[in-house]
Amino acid sequence: MSRLVVVSNRVADPRKTAAGGLAVALAEFLNNTGGLWFGWSGKVVESAHGGRAGEAELHTHQAGPVKLVTLDLSREDHDAYYLGYSNGVLWPVCHYRLDLADFESSYIAGYRRVNQMFARKLAPLLKPDDVIWVHDYHLIPLGSELRALGCRQRIGFFLHVPLPPPLMFAAIPGHDWLMRGLCSYDLVGLQSEADHEHFCRYIQREAHAQDLGDGQWRVFNRTLRAGAFPIGIDVEEFNALAEGAEARELYQRMKREYSRRKLLVGVDRLDYSKGLPHRLRAFRELLQKYPDTHRSATLIQIASPSREDVTAYTDILHQLESLCGSINGNFGELDWMPVRYMHRTVARARLPGLYRASQVGLVTPLRDGMNLVAKEFVVAQDPADPGVLVLSRFAGAAEQLGEALLVNPYDSEGTAEAIHLALQMPLEERITRHQALLASCKRWDVHWWCDSFLDTLNKSQAEESGTPWLRL
Ligand SMILES: O=P(O)(O)OC[C@H]1O[C@H](O[C@H]2O[C@H](CO)[C@@H](O)[C@H](O)[C@H]2O)[C@H](O)[C@@H](O)[C@@H]1O
Ligand SMILES: O=c1ccn([C@@H]2O[C@H](COP(=O)(O)OP(=O)(O)O)[C@@H](O)[C@H]2O)c(=O)[nH]1
């Protein structure tokens, strides 16, 4: 059997839990299959040359069945590749926020340099029959860099973030170079049908791709496949977490402490794509419009620190703090604070307890590739007395979780109405909706995601030997 080689910017020890959907999903999968996981160590080194770009040393570590190979980044590489191009250009554009993109021209050189370094370091570790699976927007050009070094293995790519419509993607200087990079893979996987449609439209419109049917395309003189493979969670693993001491202890404590209140919960990285200020404005609207929620509805909002060196992220932090303060100031009572806001990461092992103790789960991103928290909330519920998921129609998860209360997060009045509906929903309706949602989470779980992606990749033709690859 071929060995699986996974490459992603973020690498986590598969035996430990991590915050961030990509690391969580891959760790769960690799723990079962074994293989090699290659990526950034998460460390930035201030080298003797003042943290300037340079060759990195590899760290190798065996974590159960998985071999982790990571490299540190110099300050200069980290700032240009991770903060600059990945999170200052690609992240905002892919989340439809052209207004937040910082098209600083020097970033792309760092992005390219790090992708070339990843390829140079990875290529000697590869075996001829390896199957390589590259993840996310940080590493779009990695496939073509590996090809340029002579790698002929099957290489698949999965984009965890949304792919915007062609004209929006075309706002990125060098978008055609990125798309050529994407088309050097044998399979391109996207989170949703909407993202897949954007990909097909882009390659047809900008690169005159020929549709060969069955998900295959002829473009840039080669054949590739593309499709939607919505990521899921490991339902059994999450159920086991829910049975663990940490989750149960938290569940009991929350139930005791909030026995006379209705609990709403939000768990997000502190990211502008997650729509946190919009969510708080909808919550304020709820308190204003529905006095029956006073002294009762309590929102616990966890905002896990993320990418704090990017300006847009510090701006959102200040907005959020000010909104929480004003809601508590205007509506709070001596014995009731409407919002409990925490700017810290909560261990994933505790989250099922928090989800299960809540009557309403608020997952209201302005745009999100998938949003695994939505699926975790569903799986953590008591089937006999489940909470209600209020979900943004702009989360990738909405394509599969249509039985949630779907909202437009930009419409604070509409969202407040949906939250009120959720708080009032009769038991019978809650059970019916939850059964359908749970069935979707089980059907499209993380195993389905990996298996369907890898089966399709295996169907793809490996790169024809002898095809000369020019660096793009
Ligand atoms: O690695 P960070 O910069 O700390 O960010 C964490 C991850 O954020 C993004 O997650 C995405 O992947 C999830 C799983 O597919 C998906 O549910 C979510 O909608 C996406 O936003 C990012 O794409 C990852 O690369 C980051 O590791
Ligand atoms: O304080 C936190 C916040 C988030 N998470 C986990 O991080 C992941 C977030 O994934 P999601 O797809 O929702 O969004 P992303 O952060 O990847 O954009 C989920 O597994 C959460 O359980 C966590 O463990 N602790």
Automatic annotation (TrEMBL):
Name of protein: Trehalose-6-phosphate synthase
Superkingdom of origin: Bacteria
Record family assignment: Belongs to the glycosyltransferase 20 family.
This protein's UniProt keywords: Glycosyltransferase, Transferase
Pfam families given in the database record: Glyco_transf_20
Subunit comment: Homotetramer.
BP GO terms, sorted: trehalose biosynthetic process
Species the sequence originates in: Ramlibacter aurantiacus
Known role: Probably involved in the osmoprotection via the biosynthesis of trehalose. Catalyzes the transfer of glucose from UDP-alpha-D-glucose (UDP-Glc) to D-glucose 6-phosphate (Glc-6-P) to form trehalose-6-phosphate. Acts with retention of the anomeric configuration of the UDP-sugar donor.
